[in-house]
Every structure is written in C-alpha cells, then in structure tokens.
Amino acid sequence: MSELRDLQRRFMGYLLKQSVAIIANVQSTPVLSAKDRLDIYASAYKLRLKEAITSDYGKVASYLGDDQFNQLMERYIEKHPSHTTNLRYFSVNLPELVRDEAPFNSLAELYELACIERAFADSFDAKCIHYATLAELSTLPEQAWETLQFNFQSSLQILWLEHNTFPIWKALSDDNIPPKSEKTTASAWVLWRGSDLISHYKVLSGAEAAVLGLALDGETFAVICEKLLVFFSEEETPMKAIGFLQSWITEEMLESFNW
Amino acid sequence: MTRPFIGFGLGLRTEHYQHVIDEKPQVDWFEIISENYMVPGGKPLANLDKIRKDYPMVMHGVSMSIGSTDPINIAYLQKLKTLIERVEPLWISDHLCWTSVNHINSHDLLPLPYNEATINHIVDRIKQTQDVLGRQMLIENLSSYVTYNDSDMTEWEFINEISKRADCYILLDINNIFVSANNHHFEPEQYVKGIDSDRVMQFHLAGHSYNGDMIIDTHDHDVCDPVWNLYEVALGHFGAVSTMIERDDNIPPFEELRKELAIAEKIATKVLTPEQLNISENITLEGAA
After folding, report:
1. Which of A109, A159, B200, B260 could pair with A163 in a Cys bridge, judged by C-beta atoms 3.0 to 4.6 Å apart?
2. DSSP bridge pairs for A163
3. Nearest to B147 among A27, A31, A193 (CB)
C-alpha cells in the first residue's frame, strides 16, 4: 500500500500547502489542468474549516470584523491541522492561539471572549447523568457530612475574567454594539447547563468562587466550611455553607454526592 | 437477496428539530449524520432520542476514512458503535473515500485511485470494520473532481468489486453519479446500469452547483431535472430502493423539503408497482462480515 500511502500524503500536502507533488498523479483535461482540479479540494478544505471556526466563535468574528477574523482563521488552520474526526472539536485551541500570538494578543479581552464561546460550546453537548436533588441531600446519613464531597455537572466551568468580557459577549449575542473593553477586578463566572438543556451563567461572589473551586477540586464539605471562615463569622458560616450547597442543587449544578 | 424497502426519507437537520418534534410530519424515516451525535450529551442527543421514538433511522457517517492508509481508527469505531446501540438504525453507511492520512483530517471526502491494489486494501478494511461493528455496512459513491493516473477501471467496476468481496452494500448517490459523469465525461446511465443490483440498499438525491465546467456536490439546491431523470432510470433498473434527499446548506423549511421528497415518491409510483413499494418489516443487516 506504499503507493496509495504516498499518493494520500502528497494530496494532504497539497491541501496543507506544503507540496505540489500530487499534481503529477492527477490527469489534466482539455479545459482544466490537474492543478485546477486539485484546487477545488484545496478551496473546499479551507472553506469547511473556516465555516467550523466561524460557527464556534461567532462573537469573536463579530468583535474582530471580517478581515482580522479571516487572518485569525488562516493562522489557526495553518498552525492546527485537524486531528479530530469530528469538526465540532477542530477549533478547541483557538483561545490559546489568541492569547499567545500577535497581533491577536494585543486585545487582552479577546482571549476571554474566545474562552466564553468555547465554554458555551463545551457546555452545550456535555454529558449529564443526573441532577442532585434537595430530597437526596435531606436523606444523607449523619455520618456522610464528615467526608461529604460533590460531583458537579460536567458542563460546569468557572471562567476567571479580568475584563468586562461577559457584557461584551452579551451585547454581541444581542446584535448590539459591545461596550468598550475595560480592565476590571478579576471576577469568577460560572457556566453550566440545566435540565432545560440551556446553558446558564452568573458571576460569583468571592466566597462562592473560592468554595466552588474547592468543591470542584474534590475537597470535602468540612474543608469548604473552614474556607468560608475567611469570609464570614463562625456564626454565619454554617448557614452560608448550606446556602451555597442548596443553590448548587436548585440551580442544577450538582450531579451527585460522595461520602 | 430480496432488497428491503423502507420508503422515502430525509436527512435530519438541526434547523428542523422543533418542527419534527412538534408536528411529527409524515416521513418514512430519517437519516442522521453520525458524527453530529458522537458527542457526550446535551441537546443533540436529547433531540435525537425524542425523534427516534417516532421515526425509523439510518446512520450516515463522514469520517470513517475507510480508504485511508492510516491504521483503522478503532476509537472512532467504538464511538460509532455506542451511537449505533443508542439509535438502533436500520443500517449504517459511510463513503468510499479517504478523509485522513498521517492522522490529519481533511474533513472532506477525497477520492481513491480505482485499481486492484486499492480494492484489496479497502476490502480488508471494510471486513475489519464490519467485524468491529458486528454488522454489514453500506458504502457510498462520491462526487469527484480529479482522475488519478493510477486508475485503470471504472468507478462502477471498482465499487462492485469492493462490495462483492467485502460483502457490504452500496448506497448509490444518484446526484454524485450525475456530478462525476459531468466531471469525468462518462454516461451516467452507463454507471447506473453497471452497478450490481443485488448490492444496492439505498439511494441519495441532492442538489449541486456549477463552477465553470465542473459540477460541485454542494447539497445547497433542489434536486435538478436531469438528476430526477437519472433517478427514474435507476428505479427502472434496480426496482424499489429506499430513497432520501440530502440538504446541507441553504436549508429550506421542512415542508419544502417534504414537497421535494414527494417528487421522488411520484416518480417511484410511476415506475414501480404498488407491490414493489410495500414497506418491508423486520429489517436487520448484520453478522455477515
């Protein structure tokens, strides 16, 4: 199969603009050269990948405008040939390219905007097994509370943002002119998908961000309560901890309990 | 074998989910793009499950890369198998092409040279794939825009030989025959009549676009009259074959596509007897690999 393998490598080399050797394997017609015929595939290759990126990062596209977004797509396609069988996952590394490479990294909010879009895409088709209920919480045996840990929905993600990027994202989603980008105090946003199959998001208080992060890392309820003492008095802490836990359940962030 | 006939179907597209769920329109079956549902969960699978309760389905893949010289992608096949277990399709199909090499995916259906060496390579891979999946599959003819110097047989001879030796079936895309006939200067009727009838399990119909002298398989227009004419020829040659219309771009409202499907039904009614158009029951394709 070495001949077929060589042919396929040459063809892929043409799509990736690395080699024109495949031209020698292809017949010309009276009206179309071998190169013209191969260019149909080369154009379709790039067009298809650009469609996938645009579909995944529509807000980034709107924010940058056609020319700069096209430049970004060209660079991404060049740097990241697809290693996935599913186009859904082709563009997953785009935020990191935006963060790491000029001229895209000159807009600090752009990386955050790309992260938000990736987070929504990941939330959209994340696996969901079960939504924990308050009834299940109420039936936990007393000894469970000593070692209680939490399994969150796989759709749940925390994004730490240093700009007003969520308002920018929201304006772009509503086809409005986005606000001017501003650096802000770092804030944590949580994004997850509920049983309505819709992705939800909200900004977290400092206390909730800290303990939700710990809970996601597998820390126990006891450790979470200890952490809350940084934010609240000893009298307030138990009620605050239970309050956070109840809201994670009622807002359908939590999948199940471990103890 | 007696070819099972499941009637007239449409490609299930996200734009039509709500209409299909709410209105339950009369369509004999839906074809899904397998990869769209090879995801962990969420809306795509939830909608799929809802619609599957009301309609038979077949699965059509675009990334098996059966003609690739990379090792068979077992991880892909395992995911496909998981989806098969969920959907319980009447059958599954993919394209007689390659999409990836050196583990880089073109996300396009790239043509193969039509020769004995390629046949041997692909027959072996289809057999392995059918073993992993535990069922027979259908392979579909492409639209193509290049001819390789290494090809030494017709496309219909190539596809016949592979389906016979691999003991798989053929998904015959009537539009692709028309497109490739234009692009490679052969008679489309000759292709249709050259295909081994016993192996044909399904037809695809679709629209296309012109790019200078080439026709491109874009699936963004209605089925055109010459393709309807070729469909009529194909029905006359093969008898009843389950038929569906693919539309992937410039997607119209569902009822427009349903009207287009009614044209296929009308042609079939003209060419075939009512007995030939009886819907088959208890269809299983499996275990022959």
Report:
1. A109
2. A183
3. A27
CA atoms within 13 A on the CB side of B289: 20
Report CA dihedral (B112, B198, B206, B180) to the nearest 10 degrees.
40
The residue of B112, B144, B146 whose CB has the most chain A CBs within 10 angstroms, and thus the best one to mutate to test that interface, is: B146
Chosen from B105, B112, B214 to mutate, greatest number of chain A CBs within 10 A = B105
Looking at the domain covering B8-271, what would its CATH class be? alpha beta
What is the DSSP track for B223-279? PPHHHHHHHHHHHHHH---EEEE---SSPPPHHHHHHHHHHHHHHHHHHS-TTTTPP
Taking an 8 Å cut-off on Cβ atoms, the answer to whether A26 and B147 are in contact is: yes
- Say if CB A240 and CB A132 are below 8 A apart: no
Is the pLDDT confidence value at B123 over 90? yes
Of B129, B115, B137, B114, nearest in space to B71 by CA: B129
Q: Over its length of 259 residues, how does chain A's per-residue pLDDT go in tens digits?
A: 789 999 999 999 999 999 999 999 999 998 899 999 999 999 999 999 999 999 999 999 999 999 999 999 999 999 999 999 999 999 999 999 999 999 999 999 999 999 999 999 999 999 998 999 999 999 999 999 999 999 999 999 999 999 999 999 999 999 999 999 999 999 999 999 999 999 999 999 999 999 999 999 999 999 999 999 999 999 999 999 999 999 999 999 999 999 9
- Contact between A60 and A107 under an 8 Å Cβ cutoff? The reply is no
* Residue of chain A with shortest Cα separation from B97: A8
B106 in helix, strand or coil?
strand
Pick the CATH number of A128-259 from 3.90.930.50, 3.30.1490.20, 3.10.310.10, 3.90.1260.10: 3.90.930.50
Domain residue ranges in chain B: 8-271
Residue pLDDT, tens place only, B96-105: 999 999 999 9
- Both tokens assigned to B128: 């392995």
What type of residue is B6?
A: I
At residue B284 the predicted structure's pLDDT band, cuts being 50, 70 and 90, is low
Smallest Cα distance from B277 to chain A, Å: 36
* Furthest C-alpha separation in chain A: 88
CA distance A102 to chain B (A): 26
* In chain A, where the domains are located: 1-106, 128-259
B-chain CB neighbours of A86 within 8 Å are: 35, 38-39, 63
**Helices within A101-236 (DSSP H only):** 108-124, 134-138, 144-147, 165-173, 206-216, 221-228
